[in-house]
Amino acid sequence: MAGEGRYDRLFVGGQWVPAHGERLEIVSPYTEQVIADVPSASLTDNDRAVAAAREAFDNGPWPRMPLEERIAALRELRRLLADHQEPLARLITEEMGCPIAQSRTIQAVNPVRVIDACLDLAPEFPFRSVRRADTGSALVTREPVGVVAAVVPWNMPVGISVQKIVPAVLAGCTVVLKPAPQTPLDAYLLGELVDRAGFPDGVVNVVPAEREAGEHLVTHPGIDEVTFTGSSAAGRRIASLCGNDLRRVTLELGGKSAAVVLDDADLGQTAEAMRLGAFRNNGQICTLKTRVLVSQTREKELVERLAAMIDTMPVGDPYLENTQIGPLVTSRQRQVVERYITSGREEGATVVTGRGRPAGQDRGWFVEPTLFTGVRPDMKIAQEEIFGPVLSVMTYRDEAEAIEIANDSVYGLHGAVFTTDLDHGVELASRIRTGVVELNGSPAGLKAPFGGFKTSGIGREHGPEGLASYTELRSIGLPPEYAASLA
Known about the structure:
The protein is built from 17 helices and 22 strands. By secondary structure, it is of the alpha/beta class. The chain folds into 2 domains: 265 residues, Aldehyde Dehydrogenase, Chain A, domain 1 (3-Layer(aba) Sandwich), CATH 3.40.605; 183 residues, Aldehyde Dehydrogenase, Chain A, domain 2 (3-Layer(aba) Sandwich), CATH 3.40.309. The strands form 6 sheets. Strands 14-15-16-13-12-18-19 form a 7-stranded mixed β-sheet, with helices on both faces. The model has no long low-confidence stretch (mean pLDDT 96). This is Aldehyde dehydrogenase. Belongs to the aldehyde dehydrogenase family.
């Protein structure tokens, strides 16, 4: 099915089955032309997908397989994903405008890395342990939570799908994947690869859908857990819906991350780190450092370096290897970003570089990378998630004020500290109220927990903590002699 312009079926219960809903038109953000159309899963289609996943969990072999057999199926999926990185990269660029160089090196590579990290963790994960105390002894087991609804966004569609599916199925769960309506084509290819990898029927199901069907899915009585990545507004809605039924939920939501630049930092390294740290995927990543905090004495030099770096970022055709800024995902998203840029000007910030829509680009939903200075903490561009190529530089008098500004946000997803004093950098990072802080742009990696404080989410993904989120704990009281024989 991959590569066709029209898809007529959904992947449910291990079969490609007819759909009963309307259709979704997929529009290229570069050409503004319809490139494909796919079924939009109806409520009935979602019911069938949940029933298939429920049957696979309640009566199928998957949750009862030895861990080694589940690992073997995931190794085959990993092999297939590695073999299909180029078509995946091109599909993602076509769907949502990510520059092809980033689609190849990030979007299509990360799913393989996620599987590798999970498989490395699996043999040591405490699915079973014995705990003994004077008050009693227990066999503690981590049981699969059940049927998981995975609702994923359009900005990192395959990577986020895989980071939800893989730990869930590794734990013994079954999954209904709802890709975003803007980017379902890569999910079709992922469904094909799951099919070819030999997973039992119903373990993974793929149902692209609009919001109404998505809400039906996350409130379905056959769903045991919802895992969602997206905006904080949508996350609040999902949390409230799941709260009504005490349904388990993991939420990875928005961010407004700050990069604290200390006076001893290498400003050349700092500016270069912002190339991907603030602007990758056309600024449409929740972890991007969109607020750069620098002392008043070093602001001028850093701004000059940032502006020079931005000048080296070609904007245009996302299929060209040298393009670093492609179009935004939709015309509506471009309008949102343009309104924020206007707001920044109206509130008194200064645009150093970035003229809005690039000259000579008559088609495509482009916004030039934009750098603001003179940004106050109370401005909208300093407080709200823009989700576009917009970077704000803010100044501080001392480190205490830098931390105060960094924490002056409803979000707490990501952040960074730039300094040559690494011990001091770690101490400062511990004062920033976010789930992840990078030191000099160093990534935390896929074995560390990822998630947010405050309105940036609930729960964690990646690492043993991410795998644990798809399990329920059970304690079985044991006679002391028997417990000793198992220990």
